[in-house]
Design a protein that fits this description.
224 residues, alpha+beta
Amino acid sequence: MISTKNLISDIKEIPKEWVFEYYLNLNQKLTGQNIKMLSAFNTTDKIPSMCIYFDLKSGAYKFKDFSSGYQGDAIELIKKLYNITNSAAAVRIMNDYQEYTATNKPFEKQEVLFHDKFKVVDYEMRHWNTLDAIYWKGYKINSNLLERYNVIPLNHFTMEKQEIDGSITSFKFEKEYVYGYFRKSGELYKVYMPKNINKKFIKTQNYVQGIDQLKYDSKYLIIT
């Protein structure tokens, strides 16, 4: 006799979280948080370049892999992982989920919680030094140009985020080669750490760099 207890007939019956947790071997339950990991498509990836994130618009998890350029939903993930069509990816997911539920407890979808992200809450400027001059001159950039675009060296900056339980996690970053990018109004919109391998940029707000410096005195604007 063939049991139909665990028979899956529609891809919509399968939690999207399960697809990402199962096929990517995640060591944590997806509850609304974003996860950064090594690329699942590039075995030479040394620095995590793949993001698993909760898309508020669709209300489901998606992925974006900067190493390969692949991005999309759960079906797109399986399609790219196994180099198969959309329909074949859906069939594989249903078959694998049916086998999973036959030998495991039913997958329990976790409540989606609000996960705060680290934000820059404090910083301290400093004066330019010899190390700064050596670094920027390597790119033919002088202090006049940096000042024009409101780039200022930072002595340190502090980041914080609120955990699910309401507690605050904070850390202070204090190293050489840390620069703040400021708007004309004085607001910090980006932190640049060229010597930090894992994360060189921290964006604090949306802003098009250089827009304050446009003079609008020419007929054409060439963006390269």
